[in-house]
Amino acid sequence: MDLTLLATPWLGTPLYLWLAFLSLVTLLLAFDLGVLHRKSEEISIRQSLVLSGGYIGVGLMFGGFVWWHIGAESGLAYLTGFVIEKTLALDNIFVIALIFSFFGIPRQYQHRALFWGILGVIVLRGIMIGAGATLVAEFHWILYLFAAFLVLTGVKMLFAEEKEPDLDKNPLVGFLRRHLNVTNQLEGDRFFVRKPLAGSGRIALHATPLFLALVLIEAADIVFAVDSVPAIFAITTDAFVIYTSNIFAILGLRALYFALAAMIHRFRYLKPALALVLVFIGSKVFVAELMGLDKFPAAISLGVTFALIAGGVVVSLLKTRQEAQSLPAANG
């Protein structure tokens, strides 16, 4: 084998680094599906926390590898992107829980939908990040559009009224039900089954509610990627750092989901903190330009991002704990 081929840059990074990353992700997914979850079963909160901790550990170790192999600035950018994407995933968890509740998906079948959902995310994020990297390389001014979009999105998040989406009126759900034969109930953990059509008795392929849930999970990720992809482009334009930090943050989403789905209400004040992060990340692009800097210092970006998110988590847990403690007193 020609070893020089492995050193060939692809999107600015040697091919062997991309192959190492993809090999590691493939091994993790194969271990998850082939060893840990060969059967459809409910994942306990303890299992969820252990798995999530394992994925976070692997993601942070890969960040250390990026730091050692590519440089400190890239390592800090990776960690900043990892923290932002992991936090955005908490919002995603709320939506996923809503989707599973709407379709009546039991916990023992949820892992299958989440697993295949993650595979879809890996492909979709790759396409979006590849397109974004190409555009930024050709038209640098697009970074300023990304930055302005992040500031506006953050401000909107700060002042927008919280509304729970009505999935019964969701146009995608309506489209799927009009154009697919859909079973009225689940068929175990299967996405498709063959069964007689109502009225004619002819055997035809039917989608199950589990498949509809999977499609909506993929659609939800595209919506969330509209925030997260510009956010990390505002931190770094290195496609390798952007993609790897995104994917390692998302890989643990399935495990994290089962631990947090039942207590997502405890993170009520995380959304304002995340809104401030988006405003900060967008603003720093313009601040760097005004100060004549090539890039905003990566260490400051990571420090401010982590401080805002940690503050949101701490305030959320303290406030909701105080509210829970005051309820018995009020009832009494």
UniProtKB/TrEMBL annotation:
One of its GO terms (cellular component) is membrane. Keywords: Membrane, Transmembrane, Transmembrane helix. It comes from the Bacteria. Its main location: membrane. It is found in: Membrane. It is a multi-pass membrane protein. The chain crosses the membrane at residues 15-36, 48-68, 88-106, 113-135, 141-159, 203-226, 232-257, 269-287, 299-318. Pfam families: TerC. InterPro entries: Integral_membrane_TerC, Integral_membrane_TerC_rswitch. NCBIfam families: R_switched_Alx (TIGR03718). Belongs to the TerC family. This is TerC family protein.
